[in-house]
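Thread: "does anyone have the structure for this chain?"

Original post by V.I.:
We have the sequence but no experimental structure in hand. Need at least a predicted one for the grant figures.
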Amino acid sequence: MTKIENAFADYREKHEIQVGLVTELGQKATEIASLTEEKKKLQEDLGALQLSMTPVEDE
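Reply from O.Q.:
Generated one for you, tokens below.
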């Protein structure tokens, strides 16, 4: 291989790695968004449960 061919092969390999990392980053961002929404729902459920377990004071 010539020097240019070696440089091009190196560039292509680095590009493929970057594409893989960007793809993985997108997947992780989607997963984080999903888990954040799930956490929000669980916190709401916990709040409702805690409220329902609070003793009612006689008036």
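V.I.: this helps a lot. The mean pLDDT is 94.
O.Q.: and The longest helix spans residues 3-53.
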